[in-house]
Amino acid sequence: MGNKSATIVGAGLVGSLWAVFLTKAGYSVNIVELRSDLRNTDIAAGKSINLAFSQRGWTAFKAVGIEDQIKDFAIPMYGRTMHDAEGNLTYQPYGQEGQAIYSVSRGEINRRMMDIAEQHGAQIRFNEQCTGVDLENGITFFKNTKTGISSELKSDLIFGADGAFSAVRYRAMQKLDRFQYSQHYIEDGYREILLPANEDGTHKLSKNSLHIWPRGRFMLIALPNEDGSFTCTLFMPFENHEYAFDRLKTRTDVEHFFQTVFPDFYQLMPEIADAWEDHPLSSLAIIRCYPWTHGKVALMGDAAHATVPFYGQGMNCGFEDCSVMWSLMQKHGEDWDAIFREYEILRKPEGDAVQNLSLDNYLVMRDVVADPDFLLQKRFEREIQKLYPDKYIPLYSQVSFSDIPYSQAFEAGKKQDVWIKELMAKHDIEAMFNNNEIADFIHGLIAAQS
Question: What is the pTM of this model?
Answer without folding.
Answer: 0.95
